[in-house]
Specification:
The chain is an alpha+beta fold. The protein contains twelve helices and 21 strands. The mean pLDDT is about 95. Bound molecules: flavin mononucleotide.
């Protein structure tokens, strides 16, 4: 298991990190270079950011191998999204609670009052129409007012001035509920942003857990060791003691800011957030500022995909239990489709009306976290010889087995979730049902060419030099 610096070290040792010493402007120039580096799936360390006092580190979790390395796998060992999902499920069941410690490296330097100046931070302005410079990698710490427990999540944070920020909580987040509670009751609401935390905590913070489960316990179990927490300087919140930097603040609901940032699905997303007054910054003496390139980019998308595991499982499980005809199902929640789910279901149909009836029922079904129709743009039903886990096979079925127009059905004006940015106010958006099964009358004609015995061949048996006597 590696902490943040440990991960950076192994990336550098393995030639996976580019150091950029040439001075870069944090507005547009640095993100433009980040984008090129992210395309190569490398990490970056900008040593000289104009006007700032800290170097910028990022790209450290931009492909699954990096998650494996952070969690202790060896170089060359494969590590896939499925492996990460399995590790998450085990860690959720095990849980290792955090440990409160007296101090830690993040307390090496303390800034309060007039010493606070967010302009010292190398915060990038990424896209043309963004509202400004956004902190994108911060793990936000707050307290659940109902249970008193700590809650963490990743929240994009707009810099508004020397000591003012806006921490965005989407309508799906627990933080939004805490904001609503504090605004209604008038209770003071402290918040803290932690940058450069243990990779396991960065992963856990990106994950959507039910409110009664703790991301901190999950992070501890993922790394096999409790997360060390230390008291804030200006509130009773506890924050990661080994972080690179902590920004402490107090939320002020008297002022709200509309703001826009390029999102994970490749579109701009508007948000409204209360302002937060920064009350202290603590950091390591040689702190690195962690920044995730916003938008439809690898590190943002792979971390974001962690939140989708639970949604995918909930959707698939709900549909399987409500529709027993399902043989296999795959829920795609992949930014290549934007922000919406695409579901592929295989069945062994008994008549030609069955697939469309099944899709109609599926669109009406409850989906765990959300109703299926709110987040699913397209459902495709295929025969059970098609692999629902292979999009190439699914595409092949759509374009080789459909001749009648009635096998596509467009369902208009369906209520959507807020992340479908093209949905119309009050009208929602379309949904598409695609019956890619063979018509019953075509079953002989459209058989797949199969080489008899191919599924039983073990190639190694034929490549061995020894020949049978
Ligand atoms: C890079 C990145 C940026 C994110 N930005 C936001 C954001 O601005 N607002 C938000 O509510 N969730 C954002 N998320 C998703 C949350 O971190 C995730 O949904 C988390 O579960 C929210 O925690 P909560 O529900 O405990 O508040 C982001 C995730 C990642 C990986």
């Amino acid at each position: 298991m590696h902490d943040f610096r440990g991960l950076v070290k192994i990336l550098e040792e393995r030639g996976e990190l580019y150091r950029i010493s040439r001075p870069v402007d944090p507005k547009f120039e640095m993100p433009a270079v980040m984008e090129h580096i992210e395309r190569e799936r490398k990490a970056f360390l900008f040593e000289n950011v104009k006007g700032a006092r800290f170097p910028v580190i990022g790209g450290v979790l931009n492909r699954m191998e990096c998650y494996g390395w952070a969690l202790g796998s060896k170089p060359g060992e494969p590590f896939t999204a499925q492996d990460l999902d399995v590790r998450f499920e085990k860690a959720k069941a095990a849980g290792i609670g955090p440990r409160e410690v007296k101090s830690g490296p993040v307390k090496e330097v303390l800034c309060t009052g007039a010493d606070i100046n967010l302009a010292d931070l190398p915060v990038p302005t990424v896209f043309e129409l963004d509202s400004g410079a956004f902190i994108t990698a911060a793990v936000g710490v707050s307290r659940n007012p109902r249970t008193g427990k700590l809650n963490v999540g990743v929240y994009r944070t707009l810099i508004l001035g020397r000591n003012i920020v806006a921490v965005n909580a989407s309508s799906l987040s627990d933080l939004r509920k805490f904001y609503q509670h504090a605004e209604k009751t008038g209770e003071p609401m402290p918040i803290a942003l932690a940058l450069g935390v243990e990779p396991a905590l960065q992963m856990a913070a990106s994950c959507k857990l039910p409110p009664d489960q703790s991301e901190l316990d999950l992070a501890g179990a993922l790394q096999g060791k409790a997360i060390d927490l230390v008291k804030c300087e200006t509130s009773d919140l506890l924050v990661p003691a080994n972080a690179e930097m902590i920004i402490e603040g107090r939320v002020d609901f008297s002022r709200k800011i509309e703001n826009t940032l390029g999102e994970f699905a490749g579109q701009y997303g508007p948000e409204t957030a209360p302002v937060t007054e920064v009350t202290a910054i603590t950091h390591r003496r040689d702190a690195m500022f962690y920044s995730i390139l916003a938008g439809k980019n690898p590190e943002h998308n792979t971390l974001g995909s962690i939140a989708t595991f639970a949604i995918q499982r909930a959707l698939a499980g709900a549909l399987r239990s409500q529709l027993p005809a399902i043989r296999d199902i795959n829920v795609y929640l992949d930014p290549k489709f934007g922000s919406m789910a695409h579901i592929v279901i295989s069945i062994r149909k008994q008549n030609d009306a069955e697939p469309m009836a099944l899709m109609e029922a599926a669109f009406k079904a409850a989906g765990g976290f959300f109703p299926v129709s709110h987040i699913t743009k397209r459902i495709v039903v295929v025969d059970d010889d098609v692999n629902v886990h292979d999009l190439n096979d699914v595409e092949w079925a759509i374009w080789t087995r459909i001749a009648a127009a009635g096998k596509f059905r467009v369902i208009p004006d369906v209520e959507s979730w807020e992340l479908e940015r093209c949905a119309k106010d009050g009208k929602g958006s379309l949904r598409l049902a695609v019956d890619a099964t063979m018509d019953m009358e075509d079953r002989e004609k459209l058989q797949r060419p199969v080489i008899p015995g191919a599924d039983k061949v073990k190639l190694a048996d034929y490549l061995s030099r020894k020949t049978a006597a």
